[in-house]
Amino acid sequence: MSTRSKRTVFALPAAAAVASALMVGCAEETPVQEAQEAGPTAEAAILNETVTMQNEVTEILGPNLFTVGEDETPVVGVNASAEDIQDGDMVQVTGTVRQILETDIETGWGVDFDESETSYLVERELDLGVVAEDVQVIEQDP
Fold first, then answer.
1. Residue of 41, 47, 49, 86 with fewest CB within 10 Å of its CB?
2. Beta bridge partners of 73
3. Could you give the count of Cα atoms lying within 13 Å of 80 in the half-sphere of its Cβ?
4. For 78, which DSSP code?
5. 1: confidence class by pLDDT, cuts 50, 70, 90
6. Around 11, how many Cα atoms within 13 Å sit in the side-chain half-sphere?
7. How far apart are alpha carbons 74 and 120 in whole angstroms?
8. Strand residue runs (E) in the chain
C-alpha cells in the first residue's frame, strides 16, 4: 500500500468523526421509529410502555402537539408554548407510547386539541406516538 493510500484510509475515519460531531443536535431516530421499522412484534412490545428519549423538536404543530426526531414522532399532552418549546430545541420527553386512533383523538387523551392538531393526528392514525408526562428543554452550548 502506498503512502498516499494509507493517508486516504486514515482520513476517512477522521472525516466520519468530524461529520458525526457536526450532527450533534440533529434529529435522530426515536425508540418509536426504531420499533416501527423493526415490525409488528417490536411495535407491540413498545406499545403502552413508558419511554424517555432525548431528541430535537422538528415541528410545533399546535399548543398541544409537536414532533421529535427524524421520523417526526408525535408528542402530545404538553403545552409547548407554555413550556417555551420551539422548533430545533433539544428536549427530553418521558411518556407512554400509544397508537394513534381516531377514538382516542376524540376523547383527547385529556387534551383539548385544536382543529389543525386533530387533522394531523387523523392523518397519522395507526402510527405510534408519545403521550407525554414530562418534557424538559435541554440547554445546549452555543
1. 41
2. 68
3. 25
4. S
5. low
6. 6
7. 9
8. 50-62, 65-68, 73-76, 90-99, 128-138
Lowest mean pLDDT among 21-25, 107-111, 125-129: 21-25
Scan for cell 413550556, then name that residue.
Answer: 83
Which grid coordinates are listed for 83?
413550556
Contacts of residue 105, Cβ cutoff 8 Å, sequence gap at least 6: 113, 118, 121, 122, 125
CA dist., res. 23 & res. 105, Å (int): 34
pTM: 0.76
C-alpha cell belonging to residue 52: 424517555
CA dist 120 → 20, 44, 75, 94, 107 (Å) = 32, 23, 12, 22, 16
| Biggest alpha carbon–alpha carbon distance for the chain | 68
Tens-place pLDDT, residues 63-120: 889 999 998 999 998 877 677 899 999 999 999 999 998 778 777 677 888 899 889 9
Q: Could you tell me if 75 and 83 are in contact, meaning their C-beta atoms sit under 8 angstroms apart?
A: no
75: left (phi over 0), alpha (psi -120 to 50) or beta: beta
